[in-house]
Write a structure and sequence with these properties.
Layout: H1 10-22, H2 33-37, E1 50-51, H3 54-57, H4 61-75, E2 79-82, H5 85-92, E3 94-95, E4 108-112, E5 116-119, H6 127-135, E6 138-141, H7 146-151, E7 159-161, H8 168-173, E8 179-181, H9 185-191, H10 195-222, E9 227-228, H11 229-241, E10 246-249, E11 254-257, E12 275-276, E13 281-286, E14 288-290, E15 293-294, E16 297-302, H12 308-325, E17 328-330, H13 335-347, E18 358-359, E19 373-374, E20 391-394, E21 397-400, E22 404-407, E23 410-416, E24 421-426, H14 444-461, H15 467-476
Parallel strand pairs: 2-7, 5-6, 7-8
Antiparallel strand pairs: 1-3, 2-4, 4-5, 9-12, 10-14, 11-13, 13-16, 14-15, 17-24, 18-19, 20-23, 21-22, 23-24
Length: about 475
């Protein structure tokens, strides 16, 4: 069995090799088989790297590196190998555009107790940023030099690696046998957002909500003539791009009309997408990357008169989303313990959805960020303790194949209350479609929660809107009853 060892983690390699050994099959991890036939392979991306300014990053590069080194001392590690691109971006306060929708740059980083070593295409670094990195003890070397560096580490020294994030090829390059295999501490440090970062995210959410309002107001004005799913996604990206601090979309928008909404990870294509008309249900899942936060929101809209079953299914989903958002839970709680809160009302009707309820979200970084998550199974993210500052999505759904899809998603942050208990702080602001809500299925507490939420949406978003837009938006934020 042959494969490219640059693309297989240590953990995955060991699992594969264990299975193959039982059958007497040899494993070769040094075969880049694709390179033998991919003659027009494009070069590595080389977009410029830029600094994430301190007013948004909140902690300096030196502070973050100091905190990492304190953790290294506790593990008695002389070196820390950092492979995850978002971890490199976070700890060095840098961003890039090498990966679509993710503001990261392709690099490796090795941190030691005095400095650090960044392996990157140096042409991507502006001179000013290069000088700042060097001032903070970070030397820069070519991207391909990382294996040579690892092979020259003193055998007396120890190195900390994350077996889930480190390739088997890099692992085999390490000269010392003193290897500490644990989750990279940066993964956890960047997952727990500071109060300052959360305050910035609130501002990013308000801007994002204004872009959504302009998009859906435009849709209402033009849907009678038909609007393609692709054109709606483009219009949403355009309105986001007009907002201060916008960088790019955080993922390719999922715009699913009617039966396409029932395809969980649907991606509209120009030659095959549906045309939206004033009838049926529309699901829109999208997000933006801003210098002050990453957004991810899903809303489901009735484009015409909603049926009783559509309103019932949507309300059951909404009740689950609210139940999770309102949860209070003790310290030590893991995501797997909360997942049922979002499913309970669907389960009571013999209904379910086939995806996790929540994933971690980065701060002007990857929209899917480990280690936390809210899932029904025993995946790693479901077994991670929820800690103050962690940002997650809250996104139950229901999908009727061939007919329509419903998903409602807000981002929430873990916040400490008192006596060791936690709750969630609401980050996302955009109202729910009142046409799809059956208020007879809601409790008084749920109605009060929605009405309070809608008022909050109007208060935070309307300052970003023009007078005509604000009037339209006030109707969308009307209270139930």
């Amino acid at each position: 069995l042959g494969f490219d060892g640059k693309l297989i983690s240590v953990r995955a390699y060991r699992r594969i090799k264990s299975l193959m050994d039982k059958s007497g099959i040899k494993v070769d991890q040094d075969l880049d088989l694709i390179a033998m036939i991919w003659k027009d392979r494009p070069p590595m991306p080389s977009f410029p790297v830029f600094e994430h300014e301190l007013q948004y990053a909140m902690s300096s590069r030196a502070e973050k590196l100091h905190n990492v080194r304190q953790e290294m001392l506790g593990k008695k590690a002389d070196y820390l190998l950092v492979n995850a691109l978002d971890s490199i971006a976070w700890v060095l306060n840098i961003r890039g555009s090498d990966i679509p929708c993710n503001p990261v740059t392709i690099a490796y980083l090795v941190i030691d107790l005095q400095g650090g070593h960044l392996f990157i295409d140096q042409q991507k670094l502006p001179n000013v940023l290069l000088q700042k990195l060097e001032q903070d003890g970070i030397s820069v070397a070519p991207y391909s030099d990382v294996r040579t560096f690892l092979s020259k580490i003193d055998p007396k020294d120890s190195i900390w690696i994350d077996p889930q994030m480190t390739s088997i090829q890099l692992y085999n390059s390490i000269s010392t046998e003193k290897i500490i295999e644990q989750r990279n501490i940066i993964t956890l440090l960047k997952a727990c957002k500071s109060r300052g970062e959360l305050d910035h995210i609130h501002r990013a959410m308000a801007k994002d909500g204004a872009a959504l309002a302009r998009t859906f107001m435009w849709l209402e004005d033009n849907v009678a003539d038909g609007v393609s799913e692709v054109d709606l996604a483009k219009k949403l990206a355009f309105f986001r791009s007009q907002m201060e601090g916008y960088h790019q979309e955080s993922f390719d928008a999922i715009v699913g009309y009617r039966s396409n909404g029932a395809i969980v990870h649907y991606h509209a294509q120009p030659d095959s997408c549906a045309t939206i008309y004033p009838e049926g249900i529309l699901l829109v899942d999208s997000g933006g990357q801003y210098v002050d936060g990453t957004t991810d929101i899903t809303r489901t809209f009735a484009m015409g008169d909603a049926s009783e079953s559509q309103r019932r299914h949507n309300t059951l989903v909404l009740k689950g989303m609210i139940a999770l958002a309102r949860a209070k839970f003790p310290k030590g709680t893991k995501g797997i313990q909360l997942d049922v809160l979002a499913r309970q009302f669907l389960w009571s009707q013999g209904l379910n959805y086939g995806h996790g309820t929540g994933h971690g979200v980065g701060y002007f970084l990857n929209v899917h960020e480990p280690p936390q998550g809210i899932v029904p199974g025993l995946q790693e993210r479901g077994k991670t303790e929820l800690l103050p500052g962690m940002v997650l999505s809250d996104e139950p759904g229901y999908y009727l194949e061939g007919a329509y899809g419903i998903r409602i998603e807000n981002l929430i942050a873990v916040s400490q209350v008192k006596d060791g208990f936690m709750h969630f702080e609401m980050l996302t602001v955009y109202p729910y479609d009142l046409q799809l809500i059956d208020s007879t299925l809601l409790s008084k507490e749920e109605i009060a929660w929605i009405n309070h939420y809608h008022q909050m949406c109007y208060d935070r978003i309307s300052p970003h809107l023009h007078e005509k837009e604000a009037k339209w938006f006030k109707i969308k934020c009307a209270p139930i009853g």
